[in-house]
Amino acid sequence: MAVQEARQGAGPGPGPGAHEGGCACGDCPHGAREGHRRAVAAFLLQRDGFAAGQGLPAAVAHSFSASRQWVSEELTQSAEHVAERGRAEGEAWLGRLWLRTALTVWAAVVTLLLAQSLTAVGAGWTAARTAGLLAALVVAGALTAASWFHRARGGALAPVIGEDNRLSTSRAVAAAWVLFVAYAVLVLVGRLAAASGPAERDALIAGLDLARGAGTVTVLAVVCGIAVLVRRVVGLRVLGQRLQKVRAHRPRAADLLTDDAGRGAFADIQYAVIGAVALAFAAVRLARRPDQLPDLPWGLAVVVLVSAATYLAGKYAEGGRPVILSVVRSREAGDLDAPIRTGDDIEIRGAGFVPPGAQTADRLSRMVVRIGPVHVHVPLVPVTGGFSNPGDDVLTVPVPADVEPGRVEVQVVTAAGVETNRYTIDVTD
């Protein structure tokens, strides 16, 4: 009741204007990005103010439980507003990304032209250079068309964006190798079309023999297989509640080298780095010998295969189901030792309560604890710079009055929808 009276006394705040982040046009200074930035700034100010004990209505200031509930609900509403603005900003960012990817592709074509022009000084312009430039134009045109048709999903980057709205390392590595092999074959096609003699044509056709490009073909097959297998593995682990996944607001370049929480991931880093190094070697081999598929040495090919196996093993090893280890009565300084009663706070100790990437307030506010038949939303307890509750290894929730005395089961439902094991506690009168 105190919380409801406080909310009514606070009154409705000033409503957002027509341009408080609601539009996404590029010329408007109050676009999606500005709206998200303002919402984040307002939320941080509100959170730190509550952490310092400021802004509490008098109707709830006398009660610790009532003030905690009121603060948690206020922060939850603000966090939902921030999340809404974040999603709008992410959609607007994806809508602009197709043009950036197209410009990047054509900038690469111009760079190739400049490099060929500089290296042609003294050596002269050759048919191989013409074939390479034409192949680049074909690939760039195809990528530009794909960017246009998928402009709402990130342009040319749409195939490498995962279901969780993050860039996929396995798909990015596979896509890079697919584009490179397609470019190499187009170079041979261009040279074959321009060949005048049967001996030259036979030599170019022989350049496609498996004996010459076995290493490249093997690497291509493995990285493509890894991309498909990783998607299957992650999907099955999520459905089996052995891996927690939350959706990101928008993809970031750092996703290729980090996990869902933004921490550097060894498996992803080594796979991306070794794949890029091998791809650079293959590109140099193609530039030096444009009459055949790049003959990737077996030593380097095996290094890529080991890197891919490490990446796949890392995907199998990551994650885990959240677990409750113990539940105890929360005791403040000066309190007497006593059993758990309705109205008391309980401290749930365990691991994996906060999924990677779910550290934001809107995700934390979605955590629920089932105490018997009653669903209790975990209150947000702000501190300067973050939240003290909930945490990844400990949660504090009140035992509501609707819980009947006796033996009841406690279960945590995380922001990813994954349920923990059931833990039985005794609630007394």
Short description:
The chain has 429 residues and is α+β, with helices and mostly antiparallel strands.
Distance between the termini: 23 Å
Q: Structural class, from helix and strand content?
A: alpha+beta
Helix-strand string? HHHHHHHHHHEEEHEEEEEEE
> What sort of overall outline do the alpha carbons produce when their principal axes are compared?
elongated
Give, in spatial order, the strands making up the sheet with the most strands.
Answer: 2-10-9-4-5
Q: What characterizes the major β-sheet?
A: 5 strands, mixed
List low-pLDDT spans.
1-18
Description:
With 429 residues, the chain is α+β, with helices and mostly antiparallel strands. It has 11 helices and 10 strands. The chain has helices at 2-10, 32-51, 58-61, 64-119, 127-149, 169-194, 198-206, 210-239, 266-288, 298-317, 361-364; strands at 323-329, 340-341, 345-351, 368-371, 374-377, 381-383, 386-389, 394-398, 406-413, 423-428. The chain has a 5-stranded mixed β-sheet, with no helix packed on it. It has a 3-stranded antiparallel β-sheet with strand order 1-3-8, with no helix packed on it. Strands 6-7 form a two-stranded antiparallel ribbon. β6 and β7 form a beta hairpin. The longest helix is centred in the first third of the chain and has 56 residues, at 64-119. The chain is elongated, with a radius of gyration of 29 Å.
